[in-house]
Write a structure and sequence with these properties.
Helices cover about 25% and strands about 30% of the residues. The protein has eight helices and 18 strands.
Length: about 375
């Protein structure tokens, strides 16, 4: 049974290839190019990564393929990324990339090349229980990537292998060195390829021009200008440019809301201020690993961001949205990000956060933030 491995030119996919080969599987490598840089000497390292992936395949003696999925990525991932920022939300393109590109477009291409299964270097596990496929957390909890894979369905999981799901990251580096893989010392990639080492605001400004407005404190003071509410996210501390203020506590300022109709950024002082916390969130576009939720109302654990410890909650399934009530208030759950549900080690699925019960006294959404009483049309 042929396995098509997504080779990225990094150490994780390199060791995934090594492990598949040691299991005696017929493995081939396919390098995916998902972005075409239109700036000379841009930060996206596609050429270097392709050469590294080819070198690893050559070292292991496995066939190498390369495909350009940039058009699919632009249509199914990047356009949504820009639209979400334009709407005042903070999207997570990695989740959509996994669903639409790495486990859909890539899977289709792998099958066209004669492969019956695909594999990647993600840290997660797949199991089959009671006739259904499950997505499980990785053994190495510090590297678990099930959060980013929660939108996969039964078809994708039934054809997927995660060779690294059962081992620790430290073992991955050691295996790569022992096998003399050319990527053994290569630094792990972070962030999004199409942004790379560039300033995020500068990159986003190429697609969403600056829309200057005012920064207001929650107690009704205008503190200075901002360059566009879409450039900021809830809980953000750096880049506000407002510093200390006479009569203020001296604690750092944090973004706690967006008043889009008036193009105002709302801030408060202190990393644990009440304005940053919410006990309930709403979410839409739910996807379930099993194809359906466990029930109309159920208790589970959830994460509102990657690497967050599991948080106990109760989920109520509505006709077009979910309502999630946490046992403990959550810091800065952010519209546009995903809330992902777990039953122990089993990932149940997830949904996109749209609103929170902010301290402003009601459900808070970026497009229509209920704001303190001092903000009125006459202000």
């Amino acid at each position: 049974m042929k396995v098509m491995l997504g080779v990225s030119g990094g150490v994780d996919s390199s060791v995934a290839a090594l492990l598949l080969q040691r299991e005696g599987r017929e493995v081939e490598g396919l390098f995916m190019q998902n972005w075409e840089e239109d700036i000379e000497d841009g930060p996206c390292t596609v050429d270097t990564d392709r050469k590294d992936a080819l070198s690893v395949c050559g070292r292991l003696g496995i066939p190498f393929h390369a495909r350009n999925f940039a058009a699919d990525y632009w249509q199914h991932v990047f356009e949504h990324f820009i639209a979400e920022y334009r709407a005042g939300r903070t999207p997570n393109p990695d989740i959509l990339c996994n669903r639409e590109i790495k486990f859909k477009t890539f899977l289709t291409e792998a099958r066209a090349l004669g492969a019956e299964q695909i594999a990647t270097g993600h840290y997660a596990r797949v199991a089959r229980r009671d006739g259904r496929w499950q997505l499980l957390k990785a053994v190495d909890a510090s590297k678990d990537q099930s959060y980013f894979l929660h939108a996969l369905g039964q078809d994708a999981l039934s054809a997927t292998l995660f060779p690294l799901g059962e081992i620790e990251k430290s073992s991955v580096r050691e295996l790569a060195r022992e096998a003399a893989l050319p990527t053994h010392a290569k630094k792990d990639s972070t962030g999004i390829c199409f942004i790379g080492e560039r300033n995020f605001r500068d990159f986003l400004g190429r697609y969403l021009p600056a829309q200057p407005g005012e920064i207001w404190s929650v107690d009704g003071q205008c503190l200075g200008p901002h360059q566009g509410t879409m450039y900021y996210t809830l809980g953000q501390r750096n880049g506000l440019g407002i510093g200390g203020r006479q009569g203020a506590s001296g604690e750092p300022w944090y973004v706690v809301g967006k008043d889009l109709p008036r193009n105002r950024l709302l801030v408060a002082q202190g990393g644990e201020n009440q304005w940053l916390h919410a006990s309930r969130i709403r979410a839409v576009d739910a996807t379930w690993i099993d194809g359906r939720p466990p029930s109309g109302q159920f208790r589970c654990a959830a994460k509102t961001r990657y690497r967050q410890p599991d948080q106990a909650c109760e989920v109520t399934v509505g006709s077009d949205h979910l309502e999630i009530r946490f046992d403990d208030a959550q810091r800065a759950p952010t519209p546009g990000q995903s809330v992902v549900f777990y039953d122990g080690e089993v990932c149940l699925g997830g949904a996109v956060i749209t609103a929170t019960d902010a301290a402003f006294g009601g459900w808070s959404e970026p497009v229509a933030v209920p704001t303190p009483a001092w903000i009125s049309p006459s202000v």
